[in-house]
């Protein structure tokens, strides 16, 4: 396979890469203002907003285009100096699922083009689209504006369909085709990890020279090990969230849908009860999040599963947490579990480790990068509840081992930051702009009646 590039520190040999002044970020199906953990809001929302803020800190203005979903929303919201979220009306404000949005892409694109038309020519230097729906809009806008398109997929249909959870619906062929088109048209493709980069190249025939790996980050000021006595911090966090003061807490944080596999954790507790009933009765599993995607079909499925398996008394459900409550939940837990069937990266795993909490995760996708096996947590091959139960039975009673992993988790997380992510993206942006300008210069040199072969 061709060599992959990291994006961070990439420079053209001939001259320094130009720096964008203004970027149009496109996020059709979910707004960075939405609460992660509900609906379609998740790690991508966090990524877009955190990166925009760091780019603004570097004197790059960012305008985020997203679909309006409420009549109460103002047309434009300034979330930070230099970062504006523009709500584009396209279709009914409420009641549309992500799967229904392709029918509104024309209306959304018209709104984006109309907003740019009200600006002076050349207002945006570059487009960064997120998810394939946004890539379709970005593809048309880049042709109209004459600027490069950088695209981040966040998830890929072919990968999801190859690792489908039991009972989940496969991604439709229309999405696969749409992703293939965006991969072919984008000037640069941002992959969160080398695993995702290989998927783009091997499954989507992406040009390796246009694929750059730029890892996501974590807010190390918000997510950090609490200062002071660890036992006191845990006790305060549990009291704050209404969790048991004693015993073990294993937390799942994320959207409740088959892809994220919270059911694996519930089944693991049932398997643990058969294996070691005394230990199982000391474990509380916290499921923090809201139904999403195909999980909306049966929003009470996890409660029903816990009751059927006889472990309802060991499961606690919490809504998505905001502000300081999310770091408090990570600190309250002895372990954070990420049993997903696929993750392009796994920001929850990184946030938990930044708080000094070890992570037990499935060895899939970006999680093999987000979690350093046996150093910051434990990676498990597969989703067999018995394997997960064995891991919990080994780690939970071993306080010294968990303390060792906690230290490793905090160290590992410090390797990631949103400033580092923004720096890597700026390098790729500059390269895309420089290549775009070179291409335009070549076309002008050839003339309209000639064809360049170089």
Description:
With 454 residues, this protein is of the alpha/beta class. 41% of the residues lie in helices and 15% in strands. The chain has an 8-stranded mixed beta sheet with strand order 3-4-2-1-5-6-7-8, with helices on both faces. It has a 6-stranded parallel beta sheet with strand order 11-10-9-12-13-14, sandwiched between helices. Helix 1 crosses helix 16, helix 2 crosses helix 3 and helix 3 runs parallel beside helix 5. The longest helix is centred in the C-terminal third of the chain and has 29 residues. The protein is elongated and about 80 Å long. The chain starts with 21 loop residues before the first strand and ends in an 8-residue tail after the last helix.
């Amino acid at each position: 396979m061709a060599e992959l590039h990291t994006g961070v520190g990439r420079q053209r040999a001939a001259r320094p890469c130009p720096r964008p002044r203004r970027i149009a970020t496109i996020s059709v199906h979910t707004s960075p203002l939405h609460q992660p953990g509900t609906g379609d809001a998740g790690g991508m929302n966090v990524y877009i907003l955190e990166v925009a803020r760091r780019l603004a800190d570097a004197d790059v203005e960012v305008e985020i285009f997203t679909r309006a979903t409420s009549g109460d929303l103002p047309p434009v919201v300034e979330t930070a100096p230099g970062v504006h979220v523009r709500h584009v009306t396209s279709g009914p404000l409420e009641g549309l699922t992500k799967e229904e949005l392709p029918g509104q892409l024309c209306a959304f694109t018209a709104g984006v083009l109309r907003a740019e038309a009200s600006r002076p020519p050349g207002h945006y230097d570059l487009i960064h689209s997120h998810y394939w729906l946004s890539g379709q809009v970005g593809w048309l806008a880049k042709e109209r504006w004459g600027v490069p398109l950088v695209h981040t997929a966040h998830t890929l249909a072919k990968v999801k369909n190859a690792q489908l959870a039991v009972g989940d619906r496969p991604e439709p062929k229309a999405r696969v085709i749409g992703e293939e088109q965006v991969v072919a048209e984008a000037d640069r493709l941002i992959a969160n990890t080398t695993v995702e980069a290989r998927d783009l190249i091997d499954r989507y025939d992406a040009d390796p020279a246009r694929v750059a790996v730029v890892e996501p980050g974590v807010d190390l000021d918000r997510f950090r090990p609490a200062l002071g006595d660890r036992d006191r911090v845990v006790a305060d966090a549990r009291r704050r969230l209404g969790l048991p003061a004693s015993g073990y807490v294993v937390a799942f944080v994320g959207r409740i849908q088959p892809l994220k596999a919270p059911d694996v954790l519930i089944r693991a507790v049932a398997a643990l009860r058969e294996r070691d009933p005394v230990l199982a009765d000391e474990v509380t599993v916290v499921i923090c999040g809201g139904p999403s995607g195909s999980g909306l079909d049966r929003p009470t499925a996890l409660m029903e599963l816990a009751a059927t398996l006889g472990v309802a008394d060991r499961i606690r459900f919490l809504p998505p947490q905001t502000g300081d409550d999310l770091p408090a939940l990570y600190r309250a837990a002895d372990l954070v579990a990420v049993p997903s069937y696929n993750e392009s990266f796994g920001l929850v795993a990184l946030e938990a480790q930044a708080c000094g909490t070890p992570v037990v995760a499935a060895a899939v996708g970006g999680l093999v990068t987000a979690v350093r096996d046996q150093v910051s947590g434990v990676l498990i091959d597969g989703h067999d509840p018995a394997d997960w139960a064995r891991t919990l039975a080994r780690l939970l009673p071993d306080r010294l081992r968990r303390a060792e992993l906690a230290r490793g988790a905090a160290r590992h997380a410090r390797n990631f930051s949103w400033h580092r992510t923004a720096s890597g993206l700026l390098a790729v942006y500059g390269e895309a702009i420089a290549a775009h300008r070179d291409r335009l210069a070549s076309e002008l040199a050839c003339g309209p009646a000639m064809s360049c072969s170089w």
